[in-house]
Specification:
There is one protein chain. By secondary structure, the chain is α/β, with parallel strands linked by helices. It is built from 16 helices and 11 strands. The chain starts with 8 loop residues before the first strand and ends with a helix.
Length: 335
């Protein structure tokens, strides 16, 4: 590829790690977590999701199958993150350390089979903030570019002061943080029609990003490299309401120094919004240099044709190529 035609980079792709599933199977708390997840999704969703994952299992685990699928999509490079089902934020400290170490090492091994085409992210146990820096360092030591985190942990929002050392370390190392929610705390209100995902995921993105903005985390750590899945959820298209609250109410404006919309230009977003008009709006409010191609490979809530979905937004050609892969060149740098 020439500088004018950068490689096509998909920053939202997943790997399934059977080793992690085997590690946690039968442990205290695992069954309860699965039962909670089942209640929040509802039986109809589970009946569809099981066969869907089984059908996609080869693409999630076999590098040869993954590369063939990438070729069919016209994708040159994937940023591979563990399936969010591997977060296991219910786990105690000892189990949590085993989970993140195994997940980091297994993801690195998967990517090492095709190092020119696969880059990876690890995990950190957000339920144990005291382990977060150690887990991040472990991921980086495996050659991973950073870590994937959910929108919250039980009893803790991302604005919690306990995460300050983690943000500091991520900023210091230049690690990439991929914000990818798993589940939604609206619970059984979303337990039918797959609302747990269609409404829940963009809600969780918006809440998590709002905590990072309004609490001043992004003021204190301006060098954070944070990539939000699903186009940042509802926040970018409704950021005007946040700006209004920040200027109209002392309680809303007390924690951050600038209008909330200004922080969108400090964040990165994937392009997975399933609507060309919404994607154009995301590019408008965040900037064409802050949006990167994402597919949610290979799950059914992703897109089988990420480049085609991007082309449908009818962006200017320079913006199209920036989102398709140009922006990823700097964000996924090896140093």
């Amino acid at each position: 590829m020439t500088p004018e035609t950068p490689p096509t980079v998909d920053v939202h792709a997943h790997v399934l790690l059977p080793e992690v599933d085997a590690l946690v199977a039968g442990l205290p708390g695992h069954a309860e977590a699965r039962e909670l997840d089942a209640r929040r999704n509802g039986p109809a969703a589970l009946a569809v999701s099981g066969p869907m994952v089984r059908e996609r299992f080869p693409r999630l685990t076999d590098v040869t199958v993954r590369l063939a699928a990438m070729d069919a999509q016209g994708v040159d490079v994937q940023l591979v993150s563990p399936s969010p089902s591997h977060y296991h934020y219910w786990a105690d400290e000892e189990t949590a350390e085993k989970v993140y170490r195994l997940a980091n090492e297994a993801t690195a091994a998967h990517c090492s089979a095709a190092p020119e085409r696969l880059r990876g992210l690890g995990l950190v146990p957000l339920q144990h903030p005291q382990q977060a820096v150690r887990a991040l360092d472990h991921a980086l030591a495996q050659g991973l570019l950073g870590v994937e985190v959910s929108s919250h942990a039980p009893g803790r929002e991302l604005s919690d002061a306990a995460y300050e050392p983690f943000w500091s370390r991520a900023e210091e190392t230049g690690a990439l943080l991929f914000l990818h929610p798993f589940g939604c705390t609206l619970g059984e209100r979303l337990d039918r029609w797959y609302l747990s995902n269609t409404v829940g995921q963009p809600t969780e993105n918006a809440v998590a990003l709002s905590h990072l903005i309004f609490s001043g985390v992004l003021d204190r750590h301006p060098g954070l490299r944070l990539l939000a899945a699903h186009g940042g959820g509802y926040l970018p298209t409704h950021i005007g309401r946040s700006d209004h609250a920040w200027s109209a109410r002392s309680d809303a404006g007390a924690g951050c120094s600038h209008p909330p919309s200004s922080y969108l230009k400090r964040l990165y977003f994937d392009s997975l919004v399933h609507d060309p008009g919404v994607l154009r709006e995301l590019v408008r409010v965040a900037g064409a240099d802050r949006v990167l191609l994402g597919s949610d490979f290979p799950f059914d809530m992703g897109t089988e044709d990420p480049v085609g979905a991007l082309r449908a937004a009818r962006l200017p050609e320079t913006d199209f190529h920036a989102v398709r892969g140009g922006n990823a060149a700097a964000l996924l740098r090896k140093d």
